[in-house]
Amino acid sequence: MSYDEAMDIKEVEFGDMPPQAFLLGLLSAFDNRYQACADSFFKEITWKQFFAIICINLCREAPTLNDLAEVMGSSHQNVKQILIKLENKGFVMMITDEKDKRKQRIVITDKCRKFIEENDNQSKTSAEIIGSIFEGIDEKNLSITIDTIMKMERNLSRL
Known about the structure:
A two-stranded antiparallel ribbon has the order 1-2. The chain has helices at residues 3-7, 19-39, 47-58, 65-72, 76-88, 110-119, 123-133, 139-157, and strands at residues 92-96, 104-108. The protein is built from eight helices and two strands, in the order αααααββααα. Strand 1 and strand 2 form a beta hairpin. It has two domains: 1-40; 45-122, Winged helix-like DNA-binding domain superfamily/Winged helix DNA-binding domain (Arc Repressor Mutant, subunit A, Orthogonal Bundle), CATH 1.10.10.
Protein backbone atom coordinates (compact mmCIF):
# COMPACT_ATOMS: atom_id res chain seq x y z
CA MET A 1 0.00 0.00 0.00
CA SER A 2 1.36 3.42 -0.93
CA TYR A 3 1.43 6.43 1.37
CA ASP A 4 -1.31 8.14 -0.62
CA GLU A 5 -3.51 5.04 -0.36
CA ALA A 6 -2.87 4.85 3.38
CA MET A 7 -3.90 8.50 3.78
CA ASP A 8 -7.17 7.74 1.95
CA ILE A 9 -8.22 4.92 4.28
CA LYS A 10 -11.60 5.99 5.58
CA GLU A 11 -11.17 4.03 8.83
CA VAL A 12 -8.14 6.15 9.79
CA GLU A 13 -8.72 9.53 11.38
CA PHE A 14 -5.70 11.66 12.14
CA GLY A 15 -7.81 14.47 13.55
CA ASP A 16 -5.87 16.81 15.77
CA MET A 17 -2.83 14.56 16.06
CA PRO A 18 0.19 16.67 17.01
CA PRO A 19 2.76 16.88 14.20
CA GLN A 20 5.39 15.25 16.45
CA ALA A 21 3.26 12.12 16.90
CA PHE A 22 2.40 12.08 13.19
CA LEU A 23 6.10 12.32 12.27
CA LEU A 24 7.03 9.43 14.57
CA GLY A 25 4.29 7.30 13.04
CA LEU A 26 5.33 8.32 9.55
CA LEU A 27 8.97 7.38 10.26
CA SER A 28 7.89 3.98 11.59
CA ALA A 29 5.64 3.31 8.60
CA PHE A 30 8.40 4.43 6.20
CA ASP A 31 10.89 2.11 7.92
CA ASN A 32 8.50 -0.83 7.48
CA ARG A 33 7.82 -0.04 3.83
CA TYR A 34 11.49 0.55 3.07
CA GLN A 35 12.50 -2.72 4.72
CA ALA A 36 9.90 -4.65 2.70
CA CYS A 37 11.20 -3.06 -0.52
CA ALA A 38 14.88 -3.51 0.40
CA ASP A 39 14.38 -7.15 1.43
CA SER A 40 13.69 -7.94 -2.22
CA PHE A 41 16.96 -6.34 -3.34
CA PHE A 42 19.26 -9.24 -2.35
CA LYS A 43 18.41 -12.91 -2.67
CA GLU A 44 20.79 -14.25 -0.01
CA ILE A 45 20.24 -11.82 2.85
CA THR A 46 17.67 -9.41 4.25
CA TRP A 47 17.97 -5.65 4.47
CA LYS A 48 18.66 -5.81 8.23
CA GLN A 49 21.41 -8.37 7.63
CA PHE A 50 22.91 -6.15 4.93
CA PHE A 51 22.62 -3.14 7.25
CA ALA A 52 24.53 -5.08 9.92
CA ILE A 53 27.31 -5.75 7.38
CA ILE A 54 27.40 -2.05 6.48
CA CYS A 55 27.66 -1.15 10.17
CA ILE A 56 30.42 -3.71 10.78
CA ASN A 57 32.37 -2.14 7.92
CA LEU A 58 31.85 1.35 9.39
CA CYS A 59 33.64 0.38 12.61
CA ARG A 60 37.36 1.21 12.88
CA GLU A 61 38.01 -2.23 14.37
CA ALA A 62 35.98 -5.41 14.43
CA PRO A 63 33.07 -4.53 16.73
CA THR A 64 31.76 -6.43 19.71
CA LEU A 65 28.08 -7.32 19.84
CA ASN A 66 27.42 -4.35 22.12
CA ASP A 67 29.36 -2.00 19.81
CA LEU A 68 27.36 -3.18 16.81
CA ALA A 69 24.04 -2.91 18.64
CA GLU A 70 24.90 0.70 19.49
CA VAL A 71 25.87 1.56 15.90
CA MET A 72 22.74 -0.11 14.52
CA GLY A 73 20.48 1.50 17.12
CA SER A 74 19.03 -1.88 18.01
CA SER A 75 18.86 -4.16 21.01
CA HIS A 76 21.59 -6.64 21.87
CA GLN A 77 19.08 -9.49 21.38
CA ASN A 78 17.95 -8.35 17.92
CA VAL A 79 21.50 -7.86 16.69
CA LYS A 80 22.50 -11.26 18.09
CA GLN A 81 19.70 -12.91 16.05
CA ILE A 82 20.82 -11.10 12.90
CA LEU A 83 24.42 -12.18 13.51
CA ILE A 84 23.46 -15.81 14.12
CA LYS A 85 21.74 -15.87 10.72
CA LEU A 86 24.70 -14.18 9.04
CA GLU A 87 27.09 -16.60 10.73
CA ASN A 88 24.99 -19.59 9.59
CA LYS A 89 25.18 -18.25 6.03
CA GLY A 90 28.95 -17.85 6.33
CA PHE A 91 28.97 -14.05 6.13
CA VAL A 92 30.43 -13.27 9.57
CA MET A 93 32.49 -14.97 12.26
CA MET A 94 32.81 -14.34 15.96
CA ILE A 95 36.43 -14.33 17.08
CA THR A 96 37.99 -13.88 20.50
CA ASP A 97 39.56 -10.48 21.10
CA GLU A 98 43.34 -10.81 21.31
CA LYS A 99 43.65 -8.21 24.09
CA ASP A 100 40.62 -9.23 26.17
CA LYS A 101 39.69 -12.91 25.94
CA ARG A 102 36.25 -12.16 27.44
CA LYS A 103 35.23 -10.19 24.33
CA GLN A 104 34.02 -11.60 21.04
CA ARG A 105 34.58 -9.52 17.93
CA ILE A 106 32.54 -9.72 14.74
CA VAL A 107 34.43 -10.00 11.47
CA ILE A 108 33.18 -10.37 7.94
CA THR A 109 34.33 -13.43 6.02
CA ASP A 110 35.80 -13.83 2.55
CA LYS A 111 32.36 -15.03 1.43
CA CYS A 112 30.90 -11.72 2.65
CA ARG A 113 33.61 -9.69 0.94
CA LYS A 114 32.93 -11.59 -2.29
CA PHE A 115 29.19 -10.95 -1.89
CA ILE A 116 29.84 -7.22 -1.42
CA GLU A 117 32.15 -7.16 -4.44
CA GLU A 118 29.69 -9.05 -6.66
CA ASN A 119 26.82 -6.83 -5.59
CA ASP A 120 28.84 -3.66 -6.01
CA ASN A 121 27.76 -3.85 -9.64
CA GLN A 122 24.25 -3.26 -8.34
CA SER A 123 25.37 0.01 -6.76
CA LYS A 124 24.10 1.78 -9.88
CA THR A 125 20.70 0.20 -9.30
CA SER A 126 20.99 1.07 -5.62
CA ALA A 127 21.85 4.67 -6.51
CA GLU A 128 18.82 4.79 -8.81
CA ILE A 129 16.58 3.49 -6.02
CA ILE A 130 17.95 6.02 -3.55
CA GLY A 131 17.57 8.74 -6.19
CA SER A 132 13.94 7.75 -6.67
CA ILE A 133 13.27 7.86 -2.93
CA PHE A 134 14.70 11.36 -2.68
CA GLU A 135 13.21 12.66 -5.94
CA GLY A 136 11.93 16.21 -5.57
CA ILE A 137 13.69 16.79 -2.24
CA ASP A 138 16.22 19.61 -2.40
CA GLU A 139 19.47 19.79 -0.41
CA LYS A 140 18.03 22.36 2.02
CA ASN A 141 15.07 20.15 2.98
CA LEU A 142 17.31 17.10 3.19
CA SER A 143 19.71 18.95 5.47
CA ILE A 144 16.84 20.11 7.71
CA THR A 145 15.49 16.55 7.88
CA ILE A 146 18.88 15.13 8.81
CA ASP A 147 19.36 17.83 11.44
CA THR A 148 15.88 17.20 12.88
CA ILE A 149 16.34 13.43 13.10
CA MET A 150 19.81 13.84 14.66
CA LYS A 151 18.32 16.14 17.32
CA MET A 152 15.53 13.60 17.92
CA GLU A 153 18.21 10.89 18.25
CA ARG A 154 20.13 12.94 20.85
CA ASN A 155 16.92 13.60 22.79
CA LEU A 156 15.99 9.91 22.64
CA SER A 157 19.36 8.92 24.07
CA ARG A 158 18.62 11.06 27.15
CA LEU A 159 15.37 9.23 27.96
